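#structure-requests
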Amino acid sequence: MLGEIGSTFNGLTGKTKDDFGFGKSYVQYLQIFKGSSINKNGFGKVNVNNNENQNQVQYGDVFFTTSSETPNEIGTASVLTEPVFEVYLNSFCYRPNSLDEIVPGFARFFFRSESVRKQIIKLAQGSTRFNMSKVELMKLSFAFPSKEEQQKIAQFLTVLDKKIVHTTSEIDKMKEWKRGLLQKMFV
């Protein structure tokens, strides 16, 4: 069970809208939807005083969406795959006890895989707005490959992702080039 190999943390507490827009970095809810890996350039800003007890994120943390308009968006996950300093949490976070059990590069693909998503989507509760029970999420059991296998899988899928991004960029450039040719042709 996830709860046996990690623990959960909640996001910022005691903040009003006036606390946002300046200060220290925090992981925004929308960053979780945008990709399987948290993009450090997308951090928001929040005022956190030195005497506050707020949870900071760390390399390997897995962030989940716990509320959504549709059941299919419940439990969307994104992983912090880079070390950060003094970044806060504004959502629900799962922290593995050991990065030897769940390798961050692997986790980013694993928690977005179809088989895992099917199990998580079953946790959606609601009619107009859907929520997910964190307690029930922690009861889910998954079989994880060895650390070495996780690293190999992560490397392979990361290379594929980079090829997809590169190919998509090339296609976009060709479309732009084609548009330019067509404009010149019909002027």
